[in-house]
Write a structure and sequence with these properties.
Largest interface: A-B, 36 and 36 residues
Largest sheet of chain A: none
Pfam families (chains A, B): TetR_C_43, TetR_N
Helix content of chain A: over 70%
DNA-binding region (chains A, B): 35-54
Protein name (chains A, B): AcrR family transcriptional regulator
GO molecular function, one term (chains A, B): DNA-binding transcription factor activity
Low-confidence stretches of chain A: 1-5
Radius of gyration of chain A: 20 Å
Oligomer: homodimer
Number of helices of chain A: 9
Order of helices and strands of chain A: HHHHHHHHH
Structural class of chain A: mainly alpha
Strand content of chain A: under 5%
Mean pLDDT of chain A: 92
Domain HTH tetR-type (chains A, B): 13-72
DNA sequence: GACTAATTTGAGGGTGCCCTCAAGTTATGA
DNA sequence: TCATAACTTGAGGGCACCCTCAAATTAGTC
């Protein structure tokens, strides 16, 4: 198979890297809907070159988002390693939302399931099992209310994504959500 | 002043009504960003006529949104009329969010301050005093946590608007937010 | 019925973003 | 250094939405 031995040209590799760097930066700053020609311009490359390397927008997403979502693995692992089930659950929430707050593309990808590509879905679903464990653990210890559902978590993510979007204090909001608004309890 | 006595032509009045009806319907269904030419088409009128009656998008918003926001007055009044301060506070939240859930344009206008026109801001601010009263009352009775701020309400509105947007169960989410996720309390 | 001012019309120009492809450039290996 | 495949380029066509304005139509008046 000689096709395998063909090496990419060096300029092509360099341009690809520049495109990824530019896209990563712009996605993080402004979300997943930055115009492609702006990415090309930032990378110092023509729009045609961008399309050579990434024929569709999803190709660009798939080259960037899954790697970033890898951070989720660590967050959920650390949460599960926490002795106290409730603290672990809270640590997970703070970890994920902190990630979303720092990177608008992750806010889009996690909370709004924006790209919705198979590849990204895979990364997310890889964590679902772990997260379910986290939830079960917190329920078993009596800390988390019994009726809590995964959908509640999804909605919390959506809600917080909007608080972040509005530049609100998401930690404060999370705290209120965890403890409730009622005074005595 | 003879200019005052000039009457609008009947077809113009009719077309204006049709435009308002079409815009109201489309706004409620799909939010405030429906294309103007779609509104004109729905009204059975040309795009030029739309611009005759409503030179800017804001003119259209101002002709529709403030009236709808009038419902807020009733909601807050009914909430204040409720004997139990906490029940009143909750009734207000349910009233407002119910409104947002039924009408996407109100979801945009209330929670995301989308049009941000002076006229709409006026309608909203008219209620602020009443809402502050509602909050103060609920705090005084010891039902609402002392550290609750108006900003917390704004963020809750933003959060719920997103839950509604994702077709989530906003009542469930509000319930969780009011009572917290922790099991015992 | 004819006049006129009010109103409507929709083609057309502008913008921003998408995507393509024929022509030009360049890395690479012989 | 040349040949060639690999790569880059950017003008250009498409689309969706915005907004304008000269020409056509029509309601209201005499």
């Amino acid at each position: 198979m000689p096709a395998e031995t063909r090496s990419r040209r060096s300029d092509a590799l360099r341009n690809r890297d520049r495109l990824l760097a530019a896209a990563a930066e712009l996605f993080a700053e402004r979300g997943l809907e930055v115009p492609l020609d702006e990415i090309a311009r930032t990378a110092g490359v023509s729009i045609g070159t961008l399309y050579n390397h990434f024929p569709t927008r999803d190709d660009l997403y798939n080259a960037i988002i899954p790697a970033r979502l890898g951070a989720l693995d660590q967050i959920v692992a650390r949460a599960l390693a926490t002795d106290d089930p409730w603290d672990g659950f809270v640590a997970y929430l703070e970890g994920v939302f902190g990630l979303q707050a720092k990177d608008r593309s992750l806010n889009d990808a996690i909370a709004r399931r924006r790209p919705a590509s198979a590849e990204i879905a895979e990364v997310c679903s890889r964590n679902v099992d772990q997260v379910l464990k986290l939830i079960a653990r917190a329920k078993a210890s009596g800390d988390l209310r019994e009726d809590f559902q995964p959908m509640d978590l999804a909605m919390l993510g959506a809600a917080i994504s909007q608080v972040i979007h509005e530049s609100g204090d998401w930690r404060r909001f999370l705290d209120l959500h965890l403890t409730g608004l009622r005074a005595n309890g």
